[in-house]
Amino acid sequence: MDSEVLQKYRNSNMTLRLKYAGENLLKEFNLVISTYRGRENDCISELWYFLRDLGDPRVEASRTGLPGLIVAKTSLNPLEVVEKFSDIFKERPWEFRFILKVVPIEAVVKAILEEISKTALSLAEEKIKENETYKIVVRKRLTDLRREEIIESIATKLNRKVNLTTPDKIVVVEIIGDYAGVSVLEEKHIFSPQKMRRSS
């Protein structure tokens, strides 16, 4: 996607939010996107381009105020979105210029230890089978919560085997200020063009 195409979408009248994430979007985001520092607006345009192509013309996407970090809300299933991004990448890898990683979010809660733990455990017990393994990944920003206490609050109550190298499922906690996004994912549900390029 060249600069003229990006400019076209950036200037479009379709819903495209380039302002910093407001309270409402942070309560409802279901995608966390990483990009290059200073290329947040280009990344939002690129994200909008792909999601519109997948059938979501009214995606809400916004800078968070943190370098290289964007949140978005799509009306599509966020797990299916990353699967389709992977399919697109296999056919047209050159079109991904600014998106570095996309993590789907299944639930958003206040960034309070008890709320995070409760939500993560509920998702994990539902989605991780008794014979499956897991690991916990915590990315925290603008919070005093400690990574270790978050992991401990989940792991000590989850009756599943831990595997830090090749787990069946990944319990993801993405904290951005006052809110935390929580998911239980398979590796394929974390979209990383750079990783796909290295493995191809």
Plain-language structure description:
This protein is an alpha+beta fold. The chain folds into two domains: 102 residues; 78 residues, VC0802-like, CATH 3.30.2130. The chain has seven helices and nine strands. Strand 8 and strand 9 form a beta hairpin. Helix 1 crosses helix 3 and helix 5 packs across helix 6. It starts with a helix and ends with a helix.
Q: How many individual β-strands?
A: 9
Gyration radius, in Å: 17 Å
Overall number of structural domains: 2
Helix content: 25-40%
Share in β-strands: 15-25%
Secondary structural class: alpha+beta
State the distance separating the first and last CA atoms: 21 Å
Low-pLDDT ranges: 8-19
- Principal-axis shape: globular
- Average pLDDT for all residues: 90
Number of helices: 7
Largest sheet: 5 strands, mixed
Lateral strand order in the biggest sheet: 5-9-8-6-7
**What is the H/E order?**
HHEHEEHEEHEHEEEH
Provide the fold topology:
Elements: H1 3-10, H2 23-28, E1 31-34, H3 40-53, E2 60-63, E3 69-73, H4 78-91, E4 101-104, E5 107-110, H5 113-127, E6 133-141, H6 147-155, E7 161-162, E8 169-176, E9 179-185, H7 193-199
Parallel strand pairs: 6-7, 6-8
Antiparallel strand pairs: 1-3, 1-4, 2-3, 5-9, 8-9
